[in-house]
């Protein structure tokens, strides 16, 4: 019973990390990650069944790999949007300068 509770707590923290990523609450991720690591180390110290420990470790590894992939993808999307915004700002500045010059002529 205790084993299941500890495992569910670990998985709930990983789910909270996914939710934070979905809600663009980037600042929550490091704290949640630290909590997962603390709880996992406590669980690993308590768990006597090597197969159960390996199963939890594998699930967490897969979950973290998916989180890293999603976070990388989101960061790339954000960078692309910022680059586009920068280009639009430069285009608007050039357009304004052309208008200003043409008004003086």
Largest sheet: none
Residue stretches low in confidence (pLDDT < 50, at least 5 long) are: none
Rg (CA only) = 23 Å
Oligomer: single chain
The helix count comes to 3
How much helicity do the residues have? over 70%
Query: What is the arithmetic mean of pLDDT?
Result: 87
Cα-to-Cα separation, first versus last residue: 83 Å
Total count of strands: 0
Question: How much strand?
Answer: under 5%
Shape: rod-shaped
Series of H and E elements: HHH
Structural class: mainly alpha
At a glance:
This protein is mostly helical and 105 residues long. The chain is built from three helices and no strands.
Output the keywords.
single chain; mainly alpha; 3 helices; about 100 residues
Structure write-up:
It is a single chain. The chain is mainly alpha-helical and 105 residues long. It is 90% helix and 0% strand. It is built from three helices and no strands. The chain has helices at residues 2-22, 28-46, 50-104. The protein is rod-shaped. The mean pLDDT is 87.
Topology at a glance:
Blueprint: H1 2-22, H2 28-46, H3 50-104
């Amino acid at each position: 019973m205790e084993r299941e509770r500890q495992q569910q707590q670990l998985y709930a923290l990983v789910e909270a990390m996914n939710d934070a990523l979905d809600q663009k609450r980037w600042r929550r991720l490091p704290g949640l990650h630290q909590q997962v690591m603390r709880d996992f180390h406590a669980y690993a110290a308590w768990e006597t069944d090597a197969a159960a420990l390996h199963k939890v470790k594998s699930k967490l590894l897969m979950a973290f790999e998916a989180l890293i992939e999603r976070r990388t993808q989101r960061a790339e999307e954000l960078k692309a949007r910022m680059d586009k915004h920068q280009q639009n700002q430069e285009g608007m500045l050039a357009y304004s300068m052309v208008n200003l010059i043409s008004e003086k002529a």
